[in-house]
Amino acid sequence: MVRCNLTKHEMPATVAAIQSYVSGKKYKKARSLKSYDYDKLKPHIIPSTKRNHLNELFCTLTLRHIGKSPEDVERHLKGKKYTRALARCKIWMCKLLLFFFVYKVLLLEFVCILNTLEYYSKLLIVMLSYLCYQISLLNFEAQKFE
Fold it and tell me: What is the pTM of this model?
């Protein structure tokens, strides 16, 4: 007996049995499922975690369950709902990136302003302390003449 690693099907160890199985519909479908690269769809299409849909995929953009066959996935990717949702997602991502960019620029400007204010406040403190020193000297000299 020979066992297929892909489908776990057992068959007699004859050439005719193996050829008939390899040319059959079940093996071809299992091979296409195994060879399809689902990782390229990863951010938006993930394996489902629902109890009744464990053998399906889930689209995070359209919130729909999809069959695992490559035909079902391709049909969903070419569909109207997915293309519109993907366009909306790209627009929102651009807006989000723009917001964070503007936020970062404003934050950097604010930090620069604070740094400049800190510099000027230190300068102001030095100047005030110098003025206080000068006033104290004047008071001291004024007391001499009294």
Answer: 0.57
